Amino acid sequence: MGGSYLIAGRNVSSHYLAITTLATVGLGAFAISKRIKSKKPNTPPINASSADEEAFIKEFLKHAEEEEKKK
To answer: Where are the bilayer-spanning segments (predicted)?
Structure first.
């Protein structure tokens, strides 16, 4: 094995530091990827024939979500 480092009054082997570093980077990347995916809503596209119909659908969905949050 390699040398060891004195951290907080304890001897820590270099391979423990390497494993800890890799685990921390891996968990950080995993957490970031999960956070980014959760911000995207999973709603289907609105296929409206006119702008008025699309506005009505969006307004209806907005009111439905507000009522659902109240319950």
So the answer is: 12-32
